[in-house]
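ligand=6-O-phosphono-alpha-D-glucopyranose
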Amino acid sequence: MCGIIGYVGTRRAAPLLLEGLRRLEYRGYDSAGMATLEGKLWVRKDAGKLEEIERKLGLSSLPGRTGIGHVRWATHGSPSRRNAHPHLDDSGEVAVVHNGIIENYLELRRVLERKGHRFVSETDTEVIPHLISHFLRRGEGLERSVERAVGELKGSLAVAVLYAREPEKLVGVRRSSPLLVGKGNGESFLASDIPALLPFTRRVVPLQEEEMVVLTPSSFSLRHLPSGRAVARKPMEVKWTAEMAEKGGYPHFTLKEILEQPWAVGETLRGAGEEAEKLSRFLLRAEHLYFVGCGTSYHAAVVGKYLLAKLAGLQVEAVVASEFSESCGGDGRTAVLAITQSGETADVLRAVRHLRSLGGRVACLTNVVGSSVTRESQLVCYIRAGPEVSVVATKTFTSQVAYLLLLSLRLGEESGRLDRTEKKELLSSLLASPGLMERALRSSLTRTKALARKMLEEEHLYLVGRGLGYPVAMEGALKVKEISYLHAEALAGGELKHGTLALLEKGTPVIAVAVPGESKGRLMSNLEEMRARGARMIAVAEERDREVREHADLLLPVPRTGEFLSPLTFILPLQLLAYHLSVGRKLDPDRPRSLAKSVTVE
Ligand code: G6P
């Protein structure tokens, strides 16, 4: 996720762009930059926080009445001056800021390099100005060149384009990443999100999929690119406060991030490509495999362990990072995949260093480009879920799971466990999973709110699962504990009779995570054992799952995904339940007591 902004009007652009970027910093804060137009393009950019860059380079003193700006959250190429946006073509006449992921940038870059274009960054974005300039040189106009360039790009994008020879014009395009027009008097804006526009105007026009906009100080014109149709759309009046706007209109970042999971998973799957292939080769070379992580990332590691066993017949041990050096050995034949959203968790770094000291190899799966774990790893993989602001991890969990699913499918094919057709079918279901997650979220929002209302006074909650439902239950229990302070315990269905059954009384709430698959029948027997003790059985299950319906008092349905993809949807009602419990108990889910987003002490 990154933030982009653009301005064309009668005032000096740079101070306005800076003001807008300050309000987009929650979308990315590892680098920032600006390009303005006066006679020529003026560009200033660097790695670091926006305010530091402003102090160092004086972004706001750039000249001109047209300009674009960017705050970056790196996905391709580490945070550095070279990789910061805007990116330019060879002639220095086309400047582009971009939010999204270009999947085919390597191919395009090779083609353009063969035609003589010189690239200076490691980003996927840089292909865009080069492509535009390629079409400009062939005599096309600016709009047509942008359109043709976009036609070559696969992936997600929101872009703003500045061209030195057309100083009173700004062009924007949206595909899968958000982009809005803000209309003022005699001035027009482009931005990734509403907060950036609020200091200047409340009249906003959201772009829809595959639309292009051409802005001048006095006008904006929209066009739907595939059909070529002009689109008439009136500005709407935004009534949000600045704080609400930063949270996308939601009361908390936690809720915003829960609801943005379909997008985040889409980005993860779009970005993984060759990197996931390298990771599968890296893991296949090892004789002993470990996935390590803490908290939510550990739960993703456990999901990964089950997936690799089921889909590829590969044995992985999932280990809590803080226990790794105590319980695991290793040598040159051992490999670890360190799973960590922040890449800074001290226990994870220690585990990784421990294995390296024994001669083992390390790969990491993280969300933060250039984080400490990336410097300790021989292979670095990213989930590309965008910055996660809320202390509790939500969207990064499903992104980690999506990545591990992709990995398991590759390994499944390599190992011969999955034939081509099976892999193809599962892969296409995985690529379609964001749509199912969207449905699961929509159907769970009010149901979980009503359920939370009934559970506000509870002191204990138990979650049970079998198979892939077990790590999902663990993650659900963690969410509930972290933000609602209700004691929640997760257990594997088979373990009930070895202790916890003794704690169940009449009315004790229990949530069964009833994922489809071979173990579900056995979980149903567990449900009966618990019901016989008076437990109130709530079940997360696939819609129209009659069997579960018969054994539960209340159902939280999710769309049908089949067993392997189930962690992506089954966790969603549990996250939402935790959120509603927190809000219902008058707590602030964004700031749970005693917890930190990134734990850098052991
Ligand atoms: C902290 C956070 C958790 C997170 C854990 C691991 O405890 O509060 O949300 O799951 O650290 O963080 P990591 O960045 O390594 O995934």
